[in-house]
Amino acid sequence: MAGGTRPARILVTGGSGQVGEALTRTLVGLGEIYAPGRGELDLADADSIRRAMREFRPSWVVNAGAHTAVDKAESEAELAFAINATAPGVIAEEAKSVGAAVIHFSTDYVFDGTKEGAYVETDATGPLGVYGKSKLAGEAALGESGIPYFVFRTSWVYGATGKNFMLSILRLAREREHLRIVADQHGAPTWSYDLARMTAHVIGRFEELAGRSKSTVEGVTRPVSGIYHASGAGETSWYGFARAAIAELQRLEPGTKLATLEAITTAEYPTPAKRPLNSRMDCEKLERVLGWRMPEWRGSLRLAMCEVRR
């Protein structure tokens, strides 16, 4: 209960995406969930955002929608900025008028990848492409809005639905004899369901705190608002991720012939958008301040693979 007076009203954008779909399943029980389709809420259309916010009057907005096609963003900069930068600002404006808190997902691509160790939240940013620049602008829009908010930077997100690296690798491993995978970009795969469970924890924690203190969600979240890193624990490369996914598939299907893998460099696989070589992120602040530890990526991959095969 927000302030002990009303059930949580949670608006989820991008409900048909891999994170949004996991959120709509996981947040059930915390209150009333509204996950409008694109016909009702189009993040590229500021007026549709305003209409949805004013009609539903949420206590929480979970902005899982985004322009995530990293390479395509290079030729669709205007659309990428409309969805990833302008939309969060509009959401923040409307959230301020109804006293809502905003949860927003960002990316490791706000960094240039040149740091030796894992990135912390206060490290200097330096996105290499349009996608990272647009997501960084979305973070700034929330930070400058004056509303209570949580930005969760995550990395290498995958799930049992949608388009993602894991599903592509599993499909290609069945179709081809040999796959060449980049091995010099390092980070951590993050299961969409782990992000959804983290989000449910955060909302539940502050709803309970608001009820106990007879305060509002806005009041209890404001002191800890800001940017948090939230990626799978541990680290690997895209090659390591692919190798683990194929090994798990082989364990589940011992009789299936699957592709062999070859490790290659980023230079051997040119793409329109540059990627950071180091996407490792330190999630200590998330655990210390919000009480949530992200699961180790290999364990989550095994669980996700079971969901894929259902």
Structure description:
The chain is an alpha/beta fold and 310 residues long. It has a domain of 216 residues: 3-Layer(aba) Sandwich (Rossmann fold). Helix content is 41%, strand content 16%. The strands form four sheets. A six-stranded parallel β-sheet has the order 2-1-3-4-5-10, with helices on both faces. Strands 6-9 form a two-stranded parallel ribbon. The protein is globular. The N terminus is likely disordered.
What characterizes the major β-sheet?
6 strands, parallel
Low-confidence stretches: 1-5
The structural class is alpha/beta
Strand proportion: 15-25%
How are the elements arranged and paired?
Layout: E1 8-13, H1 18-26, E2 31-34, H2 46-56, E3 60-63, H3 77-98, E4 101-107, H4 130-143, E5 149-154, E6 157-158, H5 165-175, E7 178-182, E8 186-187, E9 190-191, H6 192-213, H7 217-221, E10 226-229, E11 236-237, H8 238-252, E12 260-264, H9 284-290, H10 297-308
Give a quick precis of the structure:
With 310 residues, the protein is of the alpha/beta class.
Main traits of this protein?
single chain, alpha/beta, 310 residues, Rossmann fold
